[in-house]
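Action item from last week, closing it out:
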Amino acid sequence: MRNKRFLSILFASLLLAQSVALPVWAEPAEEQEETETVQVTDESAETSETEEAAGAESEETADATGVTGVTVPEPTAAVTVPANFSGDASISLGSHSINALYPSASETDYTANAKAAIAYEVGTDTLVYASNVDEQLYPASMTKVMTCLLALEKGNLDEIVTVSGDAISYLDISGSGAALQDGEQISMRDLLYCLMVESANDAAVTIATHIAGSEAAFVEMMNQKAAELGCTNTHFVNAHGLHDENHYTTARDMAKIMVAAIQNETFCTLFSATSHEVPATNLSEARQMFTTNYLISDYLNQNYYDTRVIGGKTGFTTPAGRCLATLSESNGMKMVIVIMGAEAEFAEDGYTPLSYGHFEETIDLMNFVYDKFMPAQVLSANQILEQFPVNGGVTDTQGYTQNPRSTLLPVGSDMNALRYEIELDNGGISAPVKAGDPIGVARVWNQSKCVAQEQLYSSVDVAQEIVGENSSKPVNPAALINEASSRWHIWLIVILAVLGVLVLVLVIMHIRNSIIRARRKKRRAMRRRRR
């Protein structure tokens, strides 16, 4: 009777322990199942909450780091991290650089008749059109753009220059010139007007000799400057552009020289001048000059004047053909256009021009670009694009672009169809990181072409995580609860196992004792019968 009571108490304790343990065991499984359901069925809601949290965090970041005007991109601007970048994909596949291999427009959209043609939009750094732009061709008097640029960098506009008859004696008198004379004294400013308005070869040699001591030394400076500007297919032999087999450039290189030159305000003044009067000198009366670029003046020819053209430099030799480098502006775009190797057409007399070639080509290309393309801003100043984990860091960071970025898109383009991609430096971000540190590159793609690229920066300071008891990494309460729960599960299993063993031992002992008692009882009964 005593054993039965003990067993009853033992079994009751075992059942009580199981009733306590079973709900605890079941809890993690229920949590996991519920989480998976949320991820599958409520993905849109989860994303929305994440975006709201990111937006709130971005505002706090702006206050903490001094970054102002931070904005989160529209949901339609999908941000992905492309894999396996090889080199500068934005250069090789895009049109955002003057070095791009693929312009925004193809030759099926527009076909130039000249040997080479390029249209480059300065403000958005967009190669809009390119035809044969890397073939080495003769630039003729477009050479004088480089001569003028160097003279402005190295010379003094108000300095009086003495003309050397020996230096200019080799020039063909039938070529363009300002009729400069040996010993004539003229200001550098007037020489530059002679160079750019009249396209005077004698002015080019005089300028070169004065600045460098000789034309040959000046030419070395020209080639060095070209290399600095990234002109990889250019070699100058003289300062004026008269024909020489070893004097060549390309449409792309000429556009690079133009882009550098128009940064100089004085160059732009000379470049856009339609006429200029050289005051009387010690050997000459006043001289009046008129531009050879009919796109900016209707004084000599009214057929080509175009108000969109700011300035330009013509060039012509028989081997070079008709050449023209211009700067124009329209519809919020500023376009550098270079035409090389255009052909003129003449009347039956062989003298009266029916078309010049380079003027027509420039106007046609301008019309195409300004009609078919539009400027569009694709990145804002201080625009946060994405949140990134920081390896070994105590928190994440957000990547933002510091400068606004615009590009050219075909007229009628859908802005929501643009694709935003991010390439992180070294494949990821590692702590420590300072606010404003560059962390990668953001690129904007229009179909298969990259139309914009900007450096990506960290929005916050991220300290390195300290591993150990005093770790500064934020504690996750849920993780601590799960860890404690796991330990409690282990202890429950041990306790239940011990109880199970005790129950089994007691059951065996109970059965053994029952058998012994039964045997004793049987023996006593047999003894009574014998008596």
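Closing note: The chain is about 40% helix and 20% strand.
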